[in-house]
Every structure is written in C-alpha cells, then in structure tokens.
Amino acid sequence: MAFETEYKNIKKIAKEELEFIEKYMILCIDVQKDLRTHIINFLTAPSKRIRPLISVLFYKSIYKEINENQLKALGAVELIHNASLVHDDIIDNSAKRRGLKTTANEFGNKLGVICGDYLLSVAMKIVTELESIELLKNFSETLNKMCIGEINQNFDRFKIGTIENYIEKSKNKTGYLFETAILTPFLINKIKDNKFASEFGLNTGIAFQIRDDLLNIINIDSSKPSNNDIKDGIYNAPVIYAGNVENYMDGVEKTRSLLNNYINNSDCILTNLPENIYKQGLKKFLELLGND
Questions:
Q1: CA neighbor of 73 nearest in space, from 183, 172, 173
Q2: Alpha helices in the chain (DSSP H)
Q3: Would you say 270 and 279 are in contact if contact means Cβ atoms under 8 Å apart?
Q4: What pLDDT, on a 0 to 100 scale, did the predictor assign at position 94?
Q5: How far is it, in rounded angstroms, from Cα 254 to Cα 247?
Q6: What's the rounded Cα separation, in Å, for the pair 57 and 276?
C-alpha cells in the first residue's frame, strides 16, 4: 500500500503529460466497436504508466519542457507495453488484468493475439508518422529483443541457468523497453548526447524486472499472478542463487542485493542531473523499487 501511495505522489509531477499520453492513445484506436470499447477500457483502467512517467521526469529534469511529438512517441512506447500484456495474458491463461476481463477471456485467444498485434501496429504507425528514422530503428530493435527474451525463456523452462543469462533475459524482456522510453524524447528532438539516459533506462528496467520476479515468489503484489513462475518452469534469480527449486527462498536475500545493485547504478547516474523536482521524483521512484 505504501508503494501505491508514494507512487501516486510521484505521478502528480507529470500529471499533465500522462493525461495527454492516455488521451492520445485512445484517439489512435480505430477498430470494430466492441473491441474498441474493450481496448479503451483496458488502456484507461488504473495503471502505473511507469515508462512514460520516468521518461518525462528524466527529460524535464534536464530540459524543463517536453513537446507533443515527444509525448506522442511515449504513447507508442506505452502501447507496446500494453500489447505485451495482452500477449502475456494469453500465455499465462490469465482471466483478469487491472480488474477487468483480459482480451482473451472476453473474446478468445485468437482475437487476443490479433488485438496485441494491432496495438503493436498502432505504435509503429505513430512512430512512422513522427518521421524519426532513429526512433523507428530503436523501436524495431527493442521489439526484436523483447521477442527473443520470451523465446529464450520458453526454451529454457525447467532449467536452472546462470545469473548472467538471467540478467540478459531481463534486459531483453524489460530493460530495453525502459531504455527506449527514456531515450524517446531525446531521439525525437535529435539530441545525440544521451548516454546517461540510455544507462539510466537500462539499469532501471533490469531493476524493475528483478523486483517483479522477487514479488512473484514472495507473494506481495496482489495485483499480479503470484508464485506461478516456478510452477511454469521459469527459474529466476532466487532459484538460481539457491541452486534448486525446493529451497528457492534461500536465494531471496542475494536477489535483493542484486536488485539494490541496479538501483544504485541508476541512482549514481542521477548525480549527473540538475537538482529539481523531476530529479527528486526519479530518486523517490528508485527508493520505492528497493522496498518490498
């Protein structure tokens, strides 16, 4: 509960930008009425909007202002994330998401797959219309990596891998989309000096994935399926550190240390940003990531 309360306070810093992104996403949805209603309800249901939020905060901490094209591109990032959720719900056979019936539960797996693909197509259409070759290239590479991450995870089921392989999977599944989100406003405005943005996005994305995997096994985040990864043969950091499935709780503390390492990496990058409310919002977000 503390996470939700504190996070809402951080979101207030970028309230106008997040409202613009949500309204823009809705305007881009143009499909058959019943499905459109479902998609809009899904997109507007309470969600964290983490990727666009930290992107807006990072960019505004440096440049103070962010324009509509940059926000439209962040809408595309959020659509990609939501498309991945639609597909994940099919893979996980989930009945609900954000308190609503999942697309597959409402319309069946076939239309669920198509719906996820549709959201991806809308995202790429937005990027194409913004006429940024660099952004289009970045989006394409990120989508490729996200798919590779899921494919490799499937083939590695019921295998205890290495921490190095786990970090690589976390980059592919989550880290690179966080990196893309942070880089998006820079790429739209053709700003080349974005090394810190890239590093912050990737480290924060990896930290977010580690935290998500940790919560999955210690059953704290009630808004998501819990303790299902091990059952499905997806052996993440706690199992890897424990060395076996039976005593996976033995790996929890080392997983927390791993999480804190990536949070600290991101926090160190923030020392390069000027002191303002946006930087403080980012620092508070990193603190929340480190708390169960």
A1: 183
A2: 2-11, 15-27, 33-44, 50-63, 68-91, 103-107, 109-129, 133-155, 163-170, 176-188, 195-218, 237-242, 252-269, 277-289
A3: yes
A4: 87
A5: 13
A6: 10
With b meaning 16 or more CB within 10 Å and e meaning fewer, what string describes 145-182? Answer: bbeebbeebeebeeeebeeeebbbbbbbbbbbbbbbbb
Q: Which sign, positive or negative, has the C-alpha torsion 48, 37, 113, 80?
A: negative
Can you tell me the distance from the alpha carbon of 177 to that of 51, in angstroms, rounded to the nearest whole number?
8
Q: What is the Cα–Cα distance from 200 to 202, expressed in whole angstroms?
A: 6
| Residue 229, pLDDT score | 87
pTM here?
0.94
Q: Give me the DSSP letters along 76-113.
A: HHHHHHHHHHHHHHHHTT-SEETTEE-HHHHH-HHHHH
Instruction: State the pLDDT at residue 137.
Output: 96
Chain centroid to CA 145: 14
Look up the CATH number of the domain holding residue 145.
1.10.600.10
Six-digit token string for 232: 């499905």
From the number of C-beta atoms within 10 Å of its C-beta (0-12, 13-18, 19+), residue 199 rates as: middle
**What is the number of structural domains in the chain?**
1
Question: Residue 193 is part of which domain span?
Answer: 2-289
* CA–CA dist 215, 221 (Å, integer): 6
Question: Contact, 175 vs 212, CB < 8 A?
Answer: no
- Give the tokens for residue 88: 């994940």
Each residue of 133-149: pLDDT tens digit?
999 999 999 999 999 99
Residue segments in the chain with a per-residue pLDDT below the cut of 50: 221-223, 225
What CA–CA distance (Å, rounded) separates 237 from 217?
Answer: 11
Q: How far apart are the C-alpha atoms of 120 and 54, rounded to whole Å?
A: 21
In 3D, which of 87, 85, 76 has the Cα closest to residue 111? Answer: 87
C-alpha 95/C-alpha 226 separation (Å) is 14
